[in-house]
Design a protein that fits this description.
Blueprint lengths: L1 E6 L3 H14 L4 E4 L9 H12 L4 E5 L17 H14 L4 E5 L10 H18 L4 E5 L6 E2 L5 E2 L10 H13 L5 E6 H16 L14 H4 L18 E4 L15 H4 L14 H11 L4 E4 L10 H11 L3
Parallel strand pairs: 1-2, 1-10, 2-3, 3-4, 4-5, 5-8, 8-9, 9-10
Antiparallel strand pairs: 6-7
Length: about 325
């Protein structure tokens, strides 16, 4: 079984993950969490590379979602390629060839889905052909939310946030039609849970359509299912990797708006702290692709000593 842990490119975190892999007698594979880095500061990049190269680990790099100035990566932004080039150079410098990118385009632009999808797919095709020696893993976002300066959640909604199961299948088909073979999918189970919760909440309360967070759940989406289950994301879709954690699921009954915020921002839970059928999810993913990479998530409480990742690894190894 292929297993990776997440860490920022900081010595303490990398050493912690490396030591855990050694204790578990597993190959040390680390997905680098690069949010908050200054992509325009050469010295920050060089320091991060040196720190990574100091340990004999295999790395995966995630294109930063947000930089030190609070700017979001978005395929619709004028500087989108700067972020990709920066991460491509970074990942090559740590002797890797895998980049993870969120499927995100057109936040706050009020574009329709087709316009955002066209631009996003065109630009993914462009980078895939520009960097044929790299492998790009496209990740579902669910719903984007960040705390603002006052601590309240800010929702930079884009038309592509939810990346529903049928959207993923269409994406795979479109990449194949474009002749792109180095772009594949990574599933984030908590993000998928958010998408399910939003779909099912709107099914039960149509007045939510006036809420901007539900703006892009259109009639076509709602015609695909009466109820969206997390297993709909894993039954018929092949992934190269999965970010596995737990999440809350909006119960079929009773429905309450008081619980809605928690249901659409559920993330960062250790396995067993939420409602996801993680054993069923993992076994189905392995059935679909025996080489799928499981990436355990960092704890929101303590990123440096992330024991919940070790527990997740033990959970996965017990499935073998």
């Amino acid at each position: 079984m292929n297993i990776a842990m997440k860490a920022a490119p900081l010595s303490e975190q990398l050493q912690d993950r490396y030591s855990m892999f050694r204790d578990l007698e597993q190959k040390p594979i680390i997905e680098l969490y690069l949010d908050g880095i200054d992509i325009y500061d050469k010295s920050s990049k060089e320091e991060a590379i040196r720190t990574c190269c100091a340990l004999p680990c295999c790395y995966i790099a995630h294109v930063p979602n947000i930089d030190i100035e609070g700017r979001l990566f978005d395929f619709a932004n004028d500087d989108w390629k700067i972020w990709i080039d920066w991460t491509a150079e970074f990942v090559k410098s740590v002797n890797s060839d895998i980049l993870v990118i969120h499927y995100f385009c057109g936040h706050e632009k009020r574009w329709d889905k087709e316009e955002a999808r066209s631009i996003c797919h065109e630009r993914i095709e462009k980078i895939a052909k520009l960097y044929p020696d790299l492998n790009f893993l496209i990740e579902n976002y669910g719903l984007v939310f960040w705390p603002d300066r006052s601590g309240n959640l800010y929702y930079p909604v884009s038309p592509l946030d939810l990346f529903l199961p049928w959207d993923m299948i269409d994406f795979q088909r479109d990449m194949a039609n474009r002749g792109v073979d180095n772009v594949r999918l990574v599933l984030d189970t908590a993000h998928a849970a958010i998408s399910c919760n939003m779909f099912n909440a709107l099914r039960r309360d149509r007045s939510l359509r006036s809420d901007k967070r539900f703006r892009y759940l259109d009639h076509n989406d709602m015609s695909h299912a009466n109820y969206l289950n997390i297993m709909d994301y894993v039954e018929n879709i092949n992934y190269d990797a999965v970010h596995i954690s737990d999440a809350f699921i909006l119960a079929r009954k009773p429905f309450s708006r008081l619980w809605l915020k928690e249901a659409i921002t559920t993330e960062g839970l250790a396995l067993g702290d939420g409602h996801l059928p993680n054993r069923d999810i993992a076994r189905r993913l392995l059935f679909n692709n025996e080489n799928v990479m499981f990436v355990t998530e960092m704890s929101e409480k303590d990123n440096s000593q992330s024991m919940n990742q070790r527990e997740a690894v033990n959970f996965l190894l017990a499935l073998e």
